Amino acid sequence: MTALTELLHFDSQTQALGQVSGRLGWDQETMMPSGSSAQRGEEMAALEGVLHARRSDPRVGDWLAACDGQAYDRVTQAQLREIKTAYERAVKVPGDLAEAIASTTSMAQGKWAAARAEDDFAAFAPVLQEVLALKREEGQALAAGGDVYDAMLADYEPGTTASELDQMFGALRPGLVALRGEILEKPPAKSLQGFFDETVQLQIASELAQCFGYDLNCGRIDKAVHPFSSGSGQDVRITTRTDPSDPFNCFYSTIHEVGHGCYEQNVDPEYTLTAIGQGASMGVHESQSRIYENQLGRSRAFTEFLFGKMRAGFGDFGIESADEFYKAVNSVRNGFIRTEADEVQYNLHVLLRFDLERAMIAGDLQVQDLQSAWNDRFAADFGYEVPRASQGCLQDVHWSVGLFGYFPTYSLGNVYAGCLFERMTALNPDLDDQLRVGDLSKATAWLKESLQRHGALNLPRETITQACGAVPSEAPLIAYLRDKFSDLYDLSL
């Protein structure tokens, strides 16, 4: 066999083992018995040891060297690019450190869930300190003398730096703060009334998932504390959650995760179990979940369709018209939870986390001071106090599992979604007529063809630029939010 053939075969096996690791993580969040966390940590560490050994195997370096300078087609070149990136990362991180991170974060995830349930940050702080120390050590190894946070960010959004995000987020913040202030001076939207049966919620959620193109023959929907998606190719799983007083939590968590799931399901099957057989980055991934959830799922046209479904499933719930329902879906009001935040305030939640985690990585913020720093920043940004840890610094799973550098990709995904939606509507002027009857086929087909099927063939910014025909910027998102919410709340911005 040639060096290329051996390399691609070896990498395919590594990709398959990575999917197995992901399935263990999915099981831990959905079905694993509560007493199994210690053993699962050992299992995850063992598998991570195998994966790290494969990713840093000297043969990979030899095969890459033998392939260097050869004239390969575009797909092969992209695969080699991604394999090389993963290899160079792996050889910088000692195997025992990779195993320690896998074991510690698996344990920390269970401790986070327990601490969150008890609103007890002090119970979580020691293990978070362990995770932070390990991730900082990893970041220093990856940075090789450069910026540690940028090295962490590269795991989720290659080609982007914290300084670039600072500039983009700095342009977003003033408009969001001004828009939020104008809206909160207006009368609030009506709230849903009544009890919303979990079985009916999950049935409607399943119908919505299929409406947006999620293939349940190659996926499934389960419940989790923190909704997420997992897998690629022919096994892509999503989770949601239910609240008997708030079915929107279930429906929009589902649509959000369907955006992630459809991206993975729609990657070209020829790329399955290859280095380009998944999303280009977490920012690009988030663009799919957010455009499904917000620009499409929370649009005036689609909420007319959802209003009918909810009336059929739940009867009277205190909302009399499709217009009232549209405003309820897009209600802007005080709240603490990022995943439940409206489009106007969501990015303010993300920017808070971005700044705090950068300070922790830099050593400017100690773990024992995180809760007070969070509460102070939240009060400054939102104007009211955090009552308990589960509504503050314990609400997200990310830091417990070591995902430092991940949070900013949420806002970057919103920026990308704004660019994509601007292009989508320009090419499809009849989009609202389709959404009004629950027909997402043209919208999702355009996303599949323009972006999703390419997987990681291109770098993240190139992926968005090719789909939109323009370099991504925050301007389309700002314009979309201003137009939508000025109309909703009769503002004069």
List keywords for this structure.
493 residues; mainly alpha; three-stranded mixed β-sheet
Walk me through the structure.
The chain has 493 residues and is mainly alpha-helical. The protein has two domains: 144 residues, no CATH class; 328 residues, Orthogonal Bundle (Neurolysin, domain 3), CATH 1.10.1370. The protein has 20 helices and three strands. Strand 2 and strand 3 form a beta hairpin. Helix 1 packs across helix 3 and helix 3 runs antiparallel to helix 4.
Helix content: 55-70%
H and E string? HHHHHHHHHEEEHHHHHHHHHHH
Number of helices: 20
| Total DSSP E strands | 3
Integer count of domains: 2
The biggest sheet amounts to: 3 strands, mixed
Summarize the structure.
This protein is mostly helical and 493 residues long. The chain has 20 helices and 3 strands.
What's the structural blueprint in terms of helices and strands?
Layout: H1 3-30, H2 37-55, H3 58-67, H4 74-92, H5 95-118, H6 121-143, H7 148-153, H8 162-184, H9 198-211, E1 221-223, E2 229-232, E3 235-240, H10 247-266, H11 282-296, H12 300-314, H13 322-329, H14 343-362, H15 370-382, H16 408-427, H17 431-435, H18 441-450, H19 460-468, H20 475-489
Parallel strand pairs: 1-3
Antiparallel strand pairs: 2-3
Helix pairs in contact: 1-2, 1-3, 2-5, 3-4, 5-6, 8-14, 8-20, 9-10, 10-11, 11-16, 12-13, 14-15, 14-16, 16-20
